Amino acid sequence: MIYSNKTHHNKRHYIDWWLTAFILLLMSYGLVVLFSAGGWVLVKKQIIRLALGLVVMLLLAQVKPEKLAGITPWLYVMTILLLLAVSFFGYESKGATRWIKIGIRFQPSELAKLVIPLMIAWFYRYRVLPPDLKSVGTSLLILLIPVFLIFKQPDLGTSILVAVSGLFVLFLAGLSWKYIVGGFIALASAAPVMWLFFMKEYQKQRVLTFLNPTQDSLGSGWNIIQSKIAIGSGGLFGKGWQNGSQTQLDFLPEHSTDFILSVLSEEFGLVGVIILLLLYLAIILRGLFIASQAKDTFNRLIAGALTLTFFVYLFINAGMISGLLPVVGVPLPLVSYGGTSIITLMAGFGMIMSVYNHRKLLKS
Amino acid sequence: MSRNQIKNPQQETRIFQSRIVASILVILLLIGAIFTRYFYLQIIQHQSLLASSEQNRIKTTPIPPARGFIYDRNGHLLVENIPTYRLQVIPEKVDDFKKSLNELKNLIHLTDSDIDDLIKKKNLNRPFKPLIIKNKLNEKELASFMVRKHMFIGFKASPYLIRHYKYTDILAHVVGYVGRINDKDLKRLDIKKYKGSEYTGKLGLERFHENQLHGLPGSLTVETNAQGRVLKTIEQTPPISGKDISLTIDIELQKTAYEALGELTGSAIAINPKNGEILAMVSKPGFDPNDFVNGISHKKYNRLINSNQKPLFNRSLRGGYEPGSTIKPYMALAGLYYNIINSNYTMFSKGYFQLDNQARKYHDWKRGGHGLITIKQSLVQSVNTFYYQLAVSLGIDRIHEFLKPFKFGELSHVDLLAEKKGLLPSREWKKAAKGKMWFPGETVITGIGQGFLVTTPIQLVTSLTILANKGSYFKPHLIKSANPELKKIPYEIPKNYWDIVHQGMIGVIHDKKGSARAIANKNYLTAGKSGTSQVYGKKEEDVYNRSLEIPFHLRNHALFIAFAPADNPEIAVVVVAEHGQSGSKVAAPIAKIIIEKYLMDILKLPKKSNEK
Fold first, then answer.
1. How would you classify the pairing of strands B245-246 and B70-71?
2. pLDDT tens across B590-600, in order?
3. Annotation says B325 is catalytic
4. Which of B30, B34, B54, B232 to mutate to test the interface with A (most CBs of A within 10 A)?
5. Would A361 disulfide with which of A285, A295, B243, B259, CB 3.0-4.6 Å?
6. What is the CATH number of domain B251-285+311-602?
7. What is the 3-state secondary structure (H, E, C) of B489-525?
8. What totals of helices (H) and strands (E) does chain B contain, helices first?
9. A93 domain residue, yes or no
10. Is A90 among the domain residues?
11. Cβ separation of B6 and A226 shorter than 8 Å?
């Protein structure tokens, strides 16, 4: 075995400059918007988190994927145990039980976002691909246990993100199109069952509000209506930095967290949105490029799935605040104010970077 | 099984690469969808959403103007706006609306049906819009709420201006009242001028001079945040207050007239013949206009509506009465004008009058008649037969022609709404209204102001002005006007004709046979004439049998018209005392009190101490 980096690089620290550059650009752009939405106080706290995220990314970039694969089953078991602990001992806030205290307030579902794709990738690492029916069954079981536990907390947004991150692994592993189409059909037919038996009242309300926001324009529809007003009133070039009346006068709810893209749209207009989308696209394409360069199944699956999950964040957030999708509480990745998702996402990028850094094991 | 199959790295890589390509395509598609959505909102819907955002941000609230005050001719305040408190609630801030209301019941006067109404209103009201619980809190209610207001979150006692009528019943029929703007009002009012306003004039001067009194609203444009807190004022246009108006009414004289009527119902109007200014105008009974300002309760309203005394009925403006003998001076003048009689004319009153070939006797009020009578004495003693004869000689056509310019059967056009016309009969009128021809007997009784003749007090006072001024007059009015327009009746009546009639009217009070000699005041000459307005038609034979046993509501109305000083009239007065029976005994003393008050107390004529 020859580690290509030993021959091609003289550095001890591995870093993908392209990905790092795009991420830093996105973070800076996000901080500019956050300053307008929440002021210097929030920006300071966010910088600390982003810096912490960068450290986590760079540290994980140094870890050989093989080492990660070695501890993956243990990580999975630990995650499941923590999720169970949440449902038994977790403490409640705003009607949901998502946190446990281990020294600090900790949200195990965030861990699941990384561990589940790792586990499924690990599961397929030595198997012959494309996956057969039996292995798909097993991997779905691996996936659905944590998804169910998270869904029950309740946290629809995270359970969707965890579910898609696992499904992306299956997709990238070459899951037959037959199963994919079949899966969609099964999901569509399960929707009424979900509605009737599993969804909580507030979740149903969100869907109803999505379908008809004006019906309850002062209640839960308010957020979406105000967000659309903010986006639309921005126009092509926006109202200018710190000049968005929807944001500055508090008409826009949650404007530093879930609805920060509305702030950007209002103040920087469609041009600002296009720049943001291009930055995301650059990160995603770089991530997928890295995945395509990976040395083995495990590496390419985790790099690909984590990149695609990153895109799902963007799609759900941009879709929900513009009324294209129901509100499910997914932040705009690396831009929304808030701690846990940033660390998780940056850890993900660390793994992707590590894949690239350790890409050429075999040259066959 | 797959476990036993051998991994094929090339194939796996190929599959993976194709999946990456598929992913990229889907991602581009979805990013395209997001772009399209934002393009739709930010470019296509931009204008309308920008408008919505402005609407969010900018709130324009109208500032209603303060309504003009009303003063009397001497600057005494009659109607004002006083600050008072109302209890309001923002429904969404209250947990248990019904419970809170029931607790409030201990502090402020609220009936169970009020509470039911409020709950109904609350369900129709938007939850963030203030709902009025009660207007015009009294001091006790306000105090007991204020000390416990921490127990009523969402409830607030807020100050506002309320119209206040200082002289309740006394002035009710003159000033009228304002009330809450209702749907009917909205149809006639210019909505732009009433932004933010709650009240509009409904009756009386408040209604007639609404445009002057109301003023123009201002507006306050502010930027607010989502909680509705005002961040800054963008634009402020102050309202233009309504103009104050000054009445021609002298409130002291008005009070005097009101009190002089005592327990009687009826009307008293005093006017200055020199300019048409109405000095006092009373319709009794009155009512309290303050009750109407915030919406009168059903109970109170029904009591007003169902009262036999009809307190809401403006008798001065709409009460229709026979003029009775108060028509006689005008008849005498007509006789002189048409040369039926001259200044030396006399006739013999034998006690009754008969038309040729008719058996029916038209009686004098004095059994056996008054004997030989001059024109002056015909007025002094109110000799009916004199006027039966005169009317027949004039004929109904000339009577109609002569009285019309004196405003009989016409509107006075005083500055109040809903004045009612009286009736001056004619052949044409009878044909049209009754479908019958005119009978001579009807002319006979027209001569003493009976039959079809109907007058209103405001019309009588207008006619009296013409009589007092010897042919000229001003439109009667309630608002001071710099130069009222002098009008003249269309025919020339020689001065001595007027003098003869005036002398007769002076005699009514100052002659030893005068029917109203009891009201004479030695300090000035009064010219007057009493009248009786029949409440129901009695047989002529019963005229002598009038007794006090007639039920009150069937008794005749007593009328008196007078002006003074007779040689230079400063005041003309019409009194209608309903069911007062005797013009000279009941209505004349009322007129005397009004005239005396005006001339001696207000104008302060010099007292003549040594003359009788």
1. parallel
2. 999 999 999 99
3. yes
4. B34
5. A295
6. 3.40.710.10
7. CCCCCCHHHHHHHHHHHHHHHHCCCCCCHHHCCCCCC
8. 21, 23
9. no
10. no
11. no
